[in-house]
Amino acid sequence: MSHPALTSLRALTFFDTLPELDSELRDWLLLEDSMTKRFEQFCRKVHVDIIFEGFIGPELPDDERACLPQEPRYWLREIVLCGDGEPWLIGRTVVPESTLCGPELALQQLGETPLGRYLFTQSTLTRDYIEVGRSENLWGRRSRLRLSGKPLLLTELFLAASPLYQEEK
Asked: What single-letter DSSP state applies at residue 11?
């Protein structure tokens, strides 16, 4: 299965320095807490539609490969995060196979559980950075997170129906 917005997510261009943003947009894009939790403030139910989940080889795009250790395999999870059935965000998580040991094996069993619901209950979670990006008229961001010091890369593209744009108006 694929999703047309994955093309826009892959086309995100990340800024070297943070662009001028109004305070509401900045608040969304630089949110350190769970995006799932933020979305829950704007709807009755947040749910995940899985686009793809499984191992891939080392054929990551160069910009993602530069953010993670070189490994023979990575766990890839691509999802649509919906609020009350409306697609709000496309998410792409890339996890080096070496990260998937101990409690972090749970990253492979998330199923329809939002990643944020899992990550932000872990006391060992840290974030190295947030990069803000844009693909045409859509905003996105990329973060390298660590669980017990082990990296994973999360890229998020806010779709047109997302509350991020409702607040921007």
From this structure: T
Pure H helices in 89-150: 115-119
> What is the rounded CA–CA span in Å between residue 38 and residue 99?
27
Cβ within 8 Å of residue 65, ≥6 positions away: 58
Closest CA to 28 of 103, 129, 136, 139: 139
Q: Which tokens go with 38?
A: 């933020």
Checking DSSP bridges between strand 86-96 and strand 125-135, what pairing results, if any? unpaired
Contact 142, 14 (CB under 8 A): yes
> pLDDT, tens digit, for every residue of 31-68?
998 899 999 999 999 999 999 999 998 788 889 999 99
Q: In this structure, how many other beta carbons lie within 10 angstroms of the beta carbon of residue 149? A: 8
What is the distance between the alpha carbons of residues 27 and 47, in angstroms, rounded to a whole number?
Answer: 22
